[in-house]
Structures are given as C-alpha cells and as structure tokens.
Write a structure and sequence with these properties.
heterodimer, A: alpha+beta, Arc Repressor Mutant, subunit A, 3-stranded antiparallel sheet, elongated, disordered N terminus, B: alpha+beta, 5 domains, 6-stranded mixed beta barrel, 29 helices, 52% helix
C-alpha cells in the first residue's frame, strides 16, 4: 500500500454524506472545493477519495438532498456547484444528531465512568 | 432519467473531473511545483479516472436500463470468472425449468387450449346412460327420436367405429373408418379438401352408397389423384362413390372414434347401413355414440335438462327397452381428455417440486458464494454504492442465471417433450396439439424470472444485512453462524420436498407391482392375436360354407410348426373390446326387459382355454362335438356362477338369450356345461370396479345362421406359440392367404402388449414420478453435501482445536454427522407429514394399496436417510482427517 495513505482514515458510508452536507452548509461549492474543505478542516487527516466523492455527490443529488448548477468561478472557469436543498438540511440535522449519539456512545465505551 | 440524456451527462462529468484536475494542478503550481509535476501529481492523487466515472455513473439512476445493463455486464463477468459454479447452477436450473416446460406444454396442449374446432364449447358428446354404463351406446331409433324431440341442439349426429375391406383396387387391405351421420363434419367445422361431405339424402336406407376418404388414404392409395371425386371404391363388397376427401389436419380421438387405434381412412353414411335390426331394434346399441352442437345461447345445463325431458318421454313411450335408459351428456373436451386431467395435474405438481428443489440448491450455492464475495460487496458499499444497488446486482445475477438456465431448459423441453410422448406407453389425448406455443414460452419466461428472484433473494437479503465494517476488517475470515442456519433451513426443505416426491413415486411403483402381480385369469405370454376377413360373397352364401372355411383356416394355422393352440373368437376380446347380452335363467320368473341382467359374451373354439390358459373350474369346456348340429351349450365364469347361482350348481341349467320380444330371430336355450375362472376383461386396474363382470362362452360353431351370415367369413384369432414370434405374423398371414387369396389379415398384437397397454396411464404416471423423485433425491443429496462441506470448511479451526484438546477422530465424525442427521431427520419428518396430506391426491391412481401405505413410507425414509447420510459422510470423513497443526495455523 502507498505509504502516503497510512495516516488516512477510511471514510465509511454515511460519514462521507454527513461531511459533504456539512460542508455545503457554508454555501455552494464544487467537488474539488468540497474535498479541500474536508481536508483542511480535518487537519489533513481526512482525505476524500475522488472515487467516493463523486459517486456520493451524484447520489445525494439524485436523492434530492443537494442540487447542482454550472457556474463560472472567479477565474472564469466553468464549474459544477452543489448546494443544499431544504430536504438536505433536514437530512443533515438528522445525521448530525445520529453522529453525536454514536460518538458519545463510543466515547462512553472507550472511557467508562467507574461508579463506586 | 432516460438513456438520451446520457451523452450530455457524460460530457458534464468529464467537465467536472477536468475542472477538479485543473484546480488541483493550479493549487500545486501556486505551492511552487513545476507545471508538468503539478499535473502528474494531481492525476496521481485523483486515482483511476475511469473507475471514478464508472462509480459515479452508477449513481445516476435507480432502475434505469443503463444500470441494468451495467449490472448485467458485471454479472456476466462474475459468472464467467467462476465457470464451475455457473455451470452447475445453470444445469440445475435448466433441468428444473426444462422439465417444467415440457410438462406444462403437455398440460397446455391437452388441458388448457380450447379444442381446435369452431366454438368448441358448444360441442357435446352424447351417450346412453344404463345401469351398467354411463357412456353406453345409443340405439339408432332412439337417436332419431333425440334428434327430432330435442330443443337445444342445432344438430346431433352419431358415429360408429368399424373396419372395411377395400378390394378390387390393388392389394386387398383392411381400412379403419367410421360410419357417420350427415352433418358430422359440419359440427366439427371440417371442410373437405376436395369434393363435399354427406348430404341428408345419402344418409338414409336405400340411398346410393357413397364414401369420403381421408387425405392420407388419397395420397397413399390413389397417388393424390385430382380426379378422385366420383370414382368407385369397393368396401366390404359394396361399390361406393367417393364424394369427398377429408383433410389430414382433422384430428378427433374419443371413445369409438379412433381412440388408440390406427388412423381412420374412410367414412360412410351410417343411416344408409342396410342392417334391418340396426334401424328397428331400439334395445341394441351397436357401438353408436353421438356428438351435438348446442344452439347459440343454450348452456350445457339447459341441454342436459332438455335431454332429461326427451329421455323421460321415450321411457314412457317404450318402457320395456328405454325404462332404465337416458341420455348422458358430456362436454366434448371432457370426453377427449378423460381421466388424463388428474394424472397430468399430479405430474405438474411433482415437476414444480423438482423446480423448487433446484431453486433451493442454487440459492445454497449462491449463499456459499456470497460469503466469498462479501468483501467485494463491502468495498462497493464503502465506495458509496447503495445497499439496494448491491441487492439489485445480486438479483440481476440470479436472473441472468435463471434466464440462461431457462433458455437451455427450453431447448431440453423442445426435444424432450416429443421424445417423451412418443416413448410413453399410453395414447395421450390431443397429442398432436402439444407444442411450444406462446403460452408455453410465456410460462417458461415467468417460471425463470420467478425462480431467479426466489433463489436470488435469500443471498441478497443476507448480504444487504452484512455489517460492512466488520466484513472489511476480517480480511476474508467469516463467521459461520447465521449463514449456516439459513442453509440448514434450505436443506431441510429440500429433504421434505424430496420425501413427498419419493413417496408419490413409491406409491405408484407399488401400484404397478401389485398390478403386474395380479393374475389376469389368463396367461398372455407367447399369445398373439390378429384378425382376418374374407370376401363379402360369404355373407350371401350358405352358413355352412363359412363354417367349413373357418375350419379349414383353423386347421391350417394349427398345423404350423411352433403353434401350440389356436382359437378363433367372435364377440368380446379380452382387454380390447366388449360384447354384451341380456340373458335370463330358464325356469325363473322373468323380470321386465329393462331389468334383465347382462353378461359379456365370448364366442370361441374348443382350444380357447388351452390358448389363453384359462383354468377350468367345474364341468367341461367345449369339444369339437359341440358343433352346429349338437344341442346348444354354454360355459360361464366364476363371477357369473357366484352372482346368479349363489347356492346351487349352475351346471345343467339353461340360459335364455331371447330377451328381446321384438326380435324375430329365436335362439335355442344353451345348457351350462362348465365353469371357468374369471378373465380380466376391462384392464388390470379397472376390471374389479366394472359393474359388468359376468362372462359367458358359447361355441363359435353354434353361432346362429343369421348372425354368422351377418359377420361373414371373419374372425379374431388367438394363437399360442412355443416361442414368442415364431411363427411370425407374416408367416401366418401367408399361410392363410395360401388357403384363401382374397383374405385380409390385419392388426397383429401380442397379448403381453395388450395387458401392458391396459395399465399404460399408471405406468406413464409412475415413470414420470420416479424420474422426478430421482432428480429430487439427487439434488437434495447434493444440497446436504454442499452445506456440510461448507460447514466443515468453516469449522476447520474449531475441529483442529478440539482434536488438539484430545477429541477422538470418531467424535469429530459424529459431530459433523450429527449436523447432517439433524437436517435429514427434520426434513424427513416434515416431508412425511406433508406426504400424508398430499398423497391423497394420488389415491385415484393407486391400486391395491392405501395412499398412507406404511411400507412405502418406510422404504422412502430408509432410502432418503441412506443417501443423505452417505452425502454427509464424505465431508464428515474429511473433517475427521483434519490435521490439528495445519488447522490451527490457519489463524
């Protein structure tokens, strides 16, 4: 395996969706932009594989959680921008709360509070 | 999304990816990389562009054709990659679907398709219902009254099976044909190929003799002569004008119309038959059956009620002969199919069981495979493929398997059906209509699709529930638990299904064994029968000339080397044709004509007992002294004696056969001189249930002059030879022709064949059930073998640990065998319960045993356990030989 990937944590399904939806909360963004945001915000730990990102974007679009539009960037390049739909916002809220529950639960298991 | 959007979406995706790469390169250039380095590293980071595109495209549509083709291509690749699995699965399915297609094509052609006549639902068969028979024959005077008095038929006609000697045109030969009423072909919508059909004027006494011939005879005998109409043909010595040719595509097989016999080749009008008793005697049937076409709008029930009324009126008018008779109506289709319907339905049910087992087997194979593939699916899910997409992929693969199996099955069925029908020892009604029509193709397609979904669902369901994370981390090792359970359920259901089929087949086999072990009352081995008839001139000559010609022919046959005994025979023939008489015992008070008992009548020669080896019980049989000059004698069988002489010796009593007061012909009373044992007349499986059981023998030489002249020089012949087929029929025929060049000698058959034919339907059902049960047992054994092998593979480590801890090899063997035995016994238990419920459907086909026959159930249980435990032993034995050190190193 390429040593470059050794510090990477694999993103499982659902997690990637959550991150994409969260990223789009800040406003519309193109695919490359989304991958950059996730990478920088995670301190270079999470590196989104394009083979997962684009299928996920197209799937979320089909599920009507995000919609896309071709626009020009500030450098006058044609790019496909994604933005959240109302359904996407709702989905994001749900997935966030599920994630919180899950990470709390895992944390509780990893750091058991000793009673007595 | 439609397929037409695709080019646009594809180029959009290209643009999207190009933009991604441009941005990535630009960022790198800004960080100080050179332009080519930046491009290369951006590409490298992006990964395989083709794969990204492929995965992204996969997200575009839920159930579009595009995704389907993608799944299909992928599925096909997967199958090609594991050819062994694909081959076994496809062959298993081809067997199941092919057998179903074959049987369904028979069911479709025979039971489902409408009859190939215009408005077939309007066509009704008519018989006379009598105390002895439901479908007895109709007397011609009654038929004429039915036709006149009914209000529900637009037309009623009668027909009568008969044979004709065709002479004065090439080699004399025997033709099979029918006497029919004018209007017969019109009811069935048959239009002649050439000429016309009979007119009402040609269908009455004194009319000019006419005939229609079939296309077959026209081609065979007349070289398709286009000027055939108007030519003369001599049938039974009567010159007839040929007025029409009936096309070869006309088929009708019903009682007394070409059922089982050789093809009809000639038809003559029945009403023109110059036999006075046929026209005048209301009591005699002469083998006449009817068909009618209902008026439009009249239902079958209305017609039945109408004919009840007609029958009542005729009973009132002729209480003597019609008192206990009435019209019996039956839809033509029911008559054609006869008792084939339940047989076919049972077989269809059995073959569907086979398909179920085949599906379960393939499901098991897929389950085992999905274990191996679980990582592949986990990766695809991790890459963002939806669970539904994976399930769809699996179902697509199953459908692919099923459709390929179905196509192969169709090919099997195409050749198999024809071969099977030809090989079956039974005349299948409507056999000429069996084929692969649209409905059969649709059935095969549906069965394939349903099977595909059925066996694909289980593994798909399992896979969709698999935990992706744990599967990925396991690096190939899997936990046996859950899947093993599902597979056990499969094996148990296979075992249960196999038990039901085995019990069905076992019961039929037992039935056949019982039937073949029955004593038919005669010994059919080495007995041949055939018929002959001589020139019509004998009918005009003296009866003594007929008798002396018969004696001459008899002696000629008897003197042939290899011949042990010969008997000519008139009247009834065993298991082939019946001839019955009303009779009364002289000296007892005579009941009204309509309540007289009936007996079968056989007119035979003294050597009859020796020929058929029928045991003599009391008194004596005929001798050559019982001739035309001696007092009339008769021999009866034991059932006659039991029924009519329960407490006295029948010998010495006289039988009175002059029961019809309107018949001017008087016969002398015949004195009973002997009692022979009962001979099976109606077929091995139906003789005991037939109400006409009494049998009476009369010497052929004492047939009254008038009857003898009506028959002329003609007879059935039984010959017992020392060795079968020696002398051959051809030798015997030549020898008879030496004596009498104008004889027509025809219809050779061995008595063995006739006996076998009488149980043809049961043999047919037994053969198919046995074949299907065999396939079921094989598939179920393969199933249990496969599952145990899989479980042993899964438990190799466990077994290794156990052995390392000191378990004996025997204990390991027992461990695995226990698993197999548990599945087998549970399956057996469920199967036995199901069989107890289902074999009742077979009861009408069984003979001499109950549908719950304990011997059959025990034999099936033993067979199943034996085969299943053997199938278990192979993997168990493998487990026993597990080397603990190797097994533990697996970790």
């Amino acid at each position: 395996m390429n040593p470059r990937y050794q510090n990477r944590i694999e993103l499982l399904q659902g997690t990637l969706d959550l991150l994409i939806l969260q990223t789009l909360m800040w406003g519309e963004q193109h695919g490359y932009g989304i991958s950059q945001v996730i990478r920088t915000h995670s301190g270079d730990v999470l590196q989104v594989d394009t083979g997962s990102l684009y299928p996920a974007l197209h799937r979320l679009e089909r599920q009507k959680w995000i919609k896309s539009e071709w626009k020009l960037t500030e450098n006058n390049q044609r790019a496909k921008f994604y933005q959240l739909t109302a359904a996407g916002r709702k989905q994001l809220a749900e997935e966030r709360s599920r994630w919180t529950q899950m990470s709390d639960a895992i944390a509780a298991v990893l750091n058991p509070v000793r009673t007595q | 999304m439609s397929l037409f959007d695709r080019p646009q979406k594809d180029s959009d995706l290209d643009d999207e990816i190009r933009f991604h790469l441009n941005m990535a390169a630009k960022d790198r250039i800004q960080n100080g990389q050179s332009v080519p380095d930046a491009r290369n590293s951006a590409l490298k980071e992006f990964g395989n562009i083709m794969q990204v595109k492929e995965a992204t495209r996969g997200m575009w549509s839920g159930a579009s054709l595009e995704a389907f083709w993608q799944d299909l291509r992928y599925g096909a690749r997967m199958l090609v990659k594991s050819p062994g699995f694909a081959l076994i699965a496809i062959l298993t399915l081809a067997l199941g679907i092919g057998a179903n297609t074959a049987i369904f094509s028979v069911v479709n052609g025979v039971l489902l398709n409408p009859l190939p006549f215009p408005h077939p639902e309007q066509i009704v068969s008519l018989f006379t219902e009598m105390p002895n028979f439901k479908n007895g024959s109709i007397s011609y005077p009654n038929f004429e009254d039915w036709r006149r008095m009914n209000r529900s038929f637009s037309s009623i006609v009668v027909y009568r099976q008969t044979g004709f000697d065709l002479t004065e045109y090439g080699q004399p030969e025997r033709l099979h044909g029918e006497m029919i009423s004018a209007g017969f072909f019109e009811i069935l919508g048959v239009t002649p190929l050439l000429g016309r059909t009979f007119s009402a004027d040609e269908d009455r006494l004194g009319a000019n003799p006419t005939a229609t011939i079939t296309e077959g005879l026209w081609k065979r005998k007349y070289g398709s002569d286009p000027r055939i109409i108007g030519q003369r043909m001599v049938l039974n010595g009567v010159g007839r004008t040929i007025i029409g040719v009936v096309p070869a595509n006309f088929h009708l097989h019903i009682q007394n119309f070409q059922r089982g016999g050789p093809a009809n080749e000639v038809y003559v009008p029945v009403g023109e038959w110059n036999e006075p008793r046929f026209h005048n005697n209301r009591a005699a049937g002469w083998g006449l059956d009817g068909i009618g076409r209902l008026k439009p709008g009249i239902t079958f029930e209305q017609a039945r009620a109408d004919m009840e009324r007609v029958s009542r009126d005729l009973s009132t008018a002729y209480p003597d002969v019609n008192g206990n008779k009435k019209a019996y109506l039956l839809p033509l289709k029911d008559e054609m199919i006869g008792d084939m319907r339940p047989v076919l339905l049972v077989i269809l049910g059995a073959v569907m069981f086979v398909l179920l087992i085949a599906c379960v087997n393939v499901a098991n194979l897929l389950l085992a495979r999905s274990t191996v593939r679980s990582r592949e699916f986990a990766i695809r899910i991790a890459l963002g493929a939806g669970e539904m997409r994976i399930v769809r992929q699996l179902i697509t693969e199953s459908l692919l398997l099923a459709l390929v199996g179905g196509a192969l099955g169709l090919a099997l069925a195409r050749f198999g059906t024809a071969a099977a029908i030809a090989a079956m020892p039974v005349t299948m009604p409507r056999a000429e209509e069996i084929g692969l029509d649209q409905r059969v193709l649709l059935f095969t397609l549906l069965v394939s699709i349903i099977s595909g979904i059925a066996f694909g669902l289980a593994p798909a369901w399992k896979t969709s529930r698999a935990d992706v994370g744990s599967t990925l981390k396991e690096s190939g090792r899997t936990v046996a638990g859950g899947r093993g359970q599902l597979q056990s359920v499969f094996v148990i259901s296979e075992m249960a299904l196999a038990v039901v089929l085995l019990v069905g087949a076992g019961l039929m086999i037992r039935t056949l064994v019982v039937l073949l072990g029955l004593d038919p009352g005669f010994n059919p081995n080495n007995v041949m029968t055939f018929s002959f008839s001589g020139p019509a001139s004998y009918k005009a000559g003296s009866p003594d000339a007929i008798r002396s010609a018969q004696r001459q022919l008899h002696d000629k046959l008897a003197s042939l080397p290899g011949v042990e005994a010969v008997s000519f025979s008139w009247g009834a023939t065993v298991m082939r044709s019946d001839n019955d008489d009303y009779f009364w015992i002289v000296g007892r008070p005579m009941p009204p004509l309509s309540q007289l008992p009936m007996t079968l009548e056989y007119d035979v020669e003294p050597d009859y007992l020796k020929t058929l080896q029928v045991p003599l019980k009391r008194g004596r049989f005929f001798t050559t002294a019982d001739n035309e000059h001696a007092p009339s004698v008769a021999v009866i069988d034991e059932s006659f004696a039991e029924k009519y002489f329960p407490n006295e010796d029948p010998i010495g009593h006289f039988i009175d056969l002059n029961t019809d007061p309107t018949d001017p012909e008087k016969l002398p009373n015949a004195q009973i001189v002997g009692v022979v044992s009962h001979v099976n007349q109606w077929g091995l499986d139906s003789d005991s249930t037939n109400s006409l059981h009494a049998q009476m023998y009369l010497p052929i030489m004492q047939i009254p002059d008038k009857s003898l002249k009506r028959g002329g020089l003609a007879s059935d012949v039984y010959i017992r030879t020392t060795r079968p087929g020696v002398p051959s029929f051809e030798e015997m025929r030549q020898r008879l022709l030496d004596v009498h060049g104008e004889l027509v000698v025809y219809s050779p058959e061995s008595l063995d064949q006739i006996v076998a034919h009488s149980i043809g339907k049961k043999r047919f059902a037994m053969t198919l059930l046995a074949v299907f049960a065999g396939i079921a047992l094989l598939l179920a054994s393969v199933g249990i073998y496969g599952v145990l092998s899989y479980l042993v593979g899964q438990r190799t480590q466990e077994i290794g640990v156990r052995m390392a801890l000191g378990a004996q090899r025997f204990h390991v063997l027992r461990l695995v065998m226990n698993d197999g035995a548990r599945m087998t016994f549970v399956g057996l238990g469920i199967g036995v319960v199901a069989a107890l419920g289902l074999t009742r459907l077979l009861s009408h086909m069984l003979f001499g045993i109950k549908p719950t026959d304990p011997l059959t159930f025990m034999a099936v249980a033993l067979l199943l356990c034996g085969v299943a435990l053997f199938a278990c032993y192979v993997p168990a034995h493998r487990a026993m030989r597990v080397d603990p050190t190797v097994a533990l190193r697996y970790e």
